[in-house]
């Protein structure tokens, strides 16, 4: 790329970062559209929300903000062709947001000392050994 465009200052790191951010933005907007209360406005090329309450509920469940409803996102359809098949869609599929919440819920209900009993650095000889 530097040979073709000598004044270009982009690096591989720049390109990878841009790819990652566009994918996050697309997935965030796509998750919004999969929920009740959100819709796509073809004329404005943006996600629209039915009410402020729906948006507030969404923001509480998804505190990281990658996209703002009402802001034009003209590349959404094109990114859908690129990233749309990048996700599981079966009946057991969950989003990254769902998995994060599930992990946090599991850790909230655990006793912190529970795992310590299995983490001993000295071997035990109290029971049968497995080879």
Automatic annotation (TrEMBL):
Family matches, as InterPro entries: Myb/SANT-like_dom
Q: Where is the Myb/SANT-like domain?
A: 2-50
Pfam families per record: Myb_DNA-bind_3
Recorded source organism is: Stylosanthes scabra
Organism lineage string: Eukaryota, Viridiplantae, Streptophyta, Embryophyta, Tracheophyta
Stated name of the protein: Myb/SANT-like domain-containing protein
